What we know:
The protein has 97 residues and is mostly helical. It has four helices and no strands. The termini are far apart.
Amino acid sequence: MSAYPSAMPPLIGLIVNVLAIVLSLTAVVGFIDCLRQPKQGFELINRLSKPIWLVILGVSAVAIYLQPIGLLGMAGIVGVALYFADVRPKLRALTRR
């Protein structure tokens, strides 16, 4: 047993690390999906431009991996969730026509 108490119990730390990796990979998948979408699609659905979404998703992937419980990590999770819940379905519906 160490002389210094850890900030988190080992099981909680493991869960946080696994969630950080999974959420970071989700952000990377969103980044790759965003790269594959046509630039005009973002303009047609009246959302932020493609470069802005690429920055949001790229920064989110790094922030979530480095600080999943911190403010930037939480903001990154929200950004990734917005992309997958709002932007991506509209882009996919647009390209299916």
